[in-house]
Write a structure and sequence with these properties.
Four copies of one chain form a homotetramer. By secondary structure, chain A is an alpha/beta fold. Chain A is 37% helix and 18% strand. Chains in contact: A-B, A-C, A-D, B-C, B-D, C-D.
Chain lengths: 335, 335, 335, 335
């Protein structure tokens, strides 16, 4: 349940009073910023909370009963949806954001080429990994700071918004200095300390679904970030682990309309990691767009054959441009 | 590997000679009708077979190396795709077939109403269960023969093609007398004796994927039917079992483009059984269409609230009509 | 809910009266034989049924409220457990039944050798496939009738009880003439017409869990057989389909104690098909025994290297004998 | 492939020379401590590496070809198995280590009571959560430092070895000051930065399998720790996510013998989190022991009914004592 104090009561002191009051009934509370206002989240159902807070009715502007286990993430809290806009990139609330680029930042030339090509192909944001979560400790771990600088340069030259992954709290802070959006990968989707750090930041976070996570768990991971005061979260569905063996992960397409019903957060789909093979990526992009997602995160490499990593799942810039054009038309048709 | 004898050699006698020859090398063969010609399937790789049959080169018109475990089902055998046409219903090879109707045949009135409404809404085929595979032996098992007669009457009145399930070899034969297409359900997807009976029939078969089956197993089930001489098989993806809990089954959307690459058989998607809830069905239909399927199998009930079975996953005729119109536009756009 | 009429009322006529009475309240009933008595199964909860039948209280000996969706299969119906005994083979109710033998019946010599070896190694029943459910229609489908005769001969020579699979209603009847126990395979676990035929028989049925089935679905499949009047069903856990890739199927060991809590039917485990590799079979047998199963179904081949089918998952007779001896000790220890 | 330099060459300088040499052929290397010796890991196959290092044959004592993707974790590297001993607790290499205690550290009294009871019941190590990875950011997150102090006190009073979870690099360092073994939870199983920190420590690490991870991924996570120089890793199987719904996670029992074949690291099983219900825990413990694990991690609470967290999956101390006694006997029997 959410409790919105009136303007003059939006203080930690008042929140502490409410907290003390509810604690007597065994109800835990949490005080945070949500968008442009302060809110107290009471970890319990309305029936128990309401009578207790009625005595403070003059100090409380509104309450909102949210029956889900997640609270700030619930669609009920912001029915119109959250829009995240950075320069020409916008996602959510009717905006479709296309993020594209190579899996890994290899060289300045590779990234600049890719950036120009994906921009021309319809992307408004550029992805590229500087810190790479590799299954093997001996594999190439990314160019790290050098990669961030290359990404930043590509942003300056093209105007594209940049998205790159961070795997620790320190990396989140570092990435936030160089990139526009910090990505949290599937393997860290329930790394709660990392999510807490994301909650303290004001940089938008692209949060990937853990490949073994239920939708509820995915939304609870987002809730960690929102509970910290950062409501600029973009969800990313990237496939789950099942018995299917012709793809790396199974893209559970029903998650797209389902998440759109459950949460106000924008949702993009990553067809590249889901499929693990380029020949399915365009069709999965069409399907995701038709299912109602708010954007795509696609691997595009100027020269997939020679990519350091994940080349077999990367589109060429030409394929990408054809694909985005069709996605644009599908969206027009369905809105 | 497929071996096509020249016209005058398309006899069981010649096939037996080839079989005997290959058996010496431990290679098993199978002689059958495929479309309008006879073919010998050699259950082995080309390298082993070719030298053996070269001595019969004058009797053999062509051979085709099919490296997959399935043979007649492979895309290589009929790259242009199989088209199945019955009256106004057509699926495959560029045709999009929409099959709709109630889960269960309840009354003549219900079926006739549903038939008229789904026809108006864009369907060219009518579905409805007369023999129902129920998890409980005590649950309503369908109207059986009476249901088939109702379905037939609805076909006569509306011209719609009819599809209904059979669960045993005897039922296949009975259904084939009353309906246009025999459906084999997900629970019988690996009921090989039933598939063999389907192979002996000349009625088109709508074969659902087993919810625990891999794509290879799905195609091998189709192969059982084709091996029997019946190449009029419509595949139906209807969702697989995973850990996801907000839907009854997970619709693995990548299976759509993948199957279109692997096989020449037409592929329809059943979003109703996949989702198990009506509020996701339209979006899953858009996604499936965008992913390239050849048609849809959708539950529509004139009065979902009072359906005997599966009401919560049925669209109303109005929702159905809106949905098919959008699917039509998506297809236009993507072809 | 189960309704047991008094002895003189155990007639179809009385059952029809009760059925008519309950039908007025929309409750479906089913009249069948369960063990040595007749029972009426009312497909509804006690609260609705009880007042209606009270007026027949003198004709009704007892009622039993079974809250599960399955009824006759529930542990509540026979808390002491069902024992199935045939000659020296016994399973359930404290008896541990070991069934072993080759995947496929190849030759008389192979089966007789295997039979003698597994008997010496501790088995009291012999398995071997005459009708083989092969994924490919072109693969060897078993020796069929000839195989059944070989199996019968092995039974005569060794006294071993025999278990072999049937895939259609006709095959069930044929198998019942030659073998002691009819096996229904994982691919037919929800072939309801086949299960109905099994319900009409009086031969014991070994019912394998469908590899995609929930426990509830597994028990409902057994219920189909019990509802037909055949309560001699042996359940067999043989692994489910998951993302694990070092085994063919995942053996969900918790299913063993869980099923023992839910049902009175004996439960054996098939570690061979679960693992798909011989080097895990003994350890899975120990684990299953320790988890409380009532027996094992193990593939043993006199010469695994040269088996026609599934050789890589077969134990040698020597390995088998060592394994059964340890299982025997684990059981002694835990009882 | 592993390269062991002769004693006088076990320097970073020599490793750098070898690295430079192999880098020319595109082979990446890593120099680390493994147990009591230095080793160079070459991320490539023997065939490519061997000729290159032959010119340094006098400086190289031995090489070991490890075909698996994990290297130091492979069974080949230490066929006798790794033993981890702390006071009376020992696991691996024939030792069976039983770790038990409450899910969460609630009060000093609760922990001391639990410690005494589990010690009496056969445990040599005490578990208890101070930092709790909760799905909800609003749920109780553990007593943190205060909890660590309580745990330490319990260790002092009972002599039990202590195990508790850490969720960030900072927490790993803090926990290592108060507890004997640091646990990495299932949600952080692929948190590579955290695993790197564990690699820098000399405290033993109990690494839980990610519930969505393959065995290869699990072993690669361990490899991150070993690559950092810490070979004191205890693996913990705790169940995977599947479609099964009567348990929280499916315990894939075959993983136990499989992991024992693949790696030298000790393996314990956590039946409590796998089942999520107390009534299955003892049976799963018997099964795991029979399958060959090296120990157990079990939730035991003096008063499960009133536990703050996970009470429904906790054994009572009495149940625990009965269970460990049986596990002891199973082990005796199987060794």
């Amino acid at each position: 349940m959410l409790i919105y104090p009136v303007a003059e009561k939006c203080t930690d002191k008042f929140a502490a009073e409410i907290a003390a009051l509810l604690a007597c009934s065994g109800i835990r509370t949490h005080h945070t910023q949500f968008g442009d206002r302060r809110v107290i989240v009471a970890d319990d159902n309305a029936a128990a909370v309401l009578p207790i807070i009625q005595q403070h009715s003059k100090s409380i502007e509104a309450t909102l009963d949210v029956p889900e286990t997640y609270q700030l993430t619930s669609k009920r809290v912001r029915p119109g949806g959250t829009v995240i806009k950075i320069r020409d990139f916008a996602v959510g609330g009717g905006h479709f954001g296309i993020i594209a680029g190579p899996c890994t930042i290899e060289t300045e030339k590779q990234v600049l080429t890719a950036a120009e090509r994906v921009k021309k192909g319809g992307a408004t944001a550029l992805r590229g990994g500087a810190f790479k979560p590799r299954t093997s400790p001996y594999a190439f771990q990314g160019l790290k700071l050098e990669g961030l600088k290359i990404l930043q340069k590509a942003a300056e030259e093209t105007g594209l918004v940049t998205v790159t992954e961070a795997m620790s709290s320190d990396e989140v802070k570092l990435v936030a200095e160089y990139a526009d959006i910090v990505q949290i990968g599937t393997r860290n989707a329930q790394n709660y300390r990392l999510l807490e750090t994301c909650g303290e930041m004001r940089v938008p976070i692209l949060l990937k679904r853990g490949y073994g996570c239920s939708l509820d768990e995915f939304l609870m991971s987002a809730e960690y970030i929102l509970a910290g005061g950062n409501d600029r979260v973009i969800l990313c569905e990237r496939g789950i682990r099942t018995f299917e063996n012709y793809v790396r992960y199974t893209l559970p397409i029903a998650a797209v309309p389902m998440l759109k019903m459950l949460t106000h957060l924008p949702l993009v789909v990553d067809p590249s990691h889901a499929a693990g093979r380029a020949d399915l990526v365009s069709k999965l992009s069409f399907a995701s767009t038709a299912a109602g997602c708010d954007g795509l995160l696609v691997e595009v490499h100027p020269d997939p054959q020679h990519a350091l990593c994940d080349g077999r799942q990367s589109l060429t810039p030409e394929e990408f441009a054809v694909m985005t054009e069709k996605c644009r038309k599908i969206r027009e048709l369905l809105v």
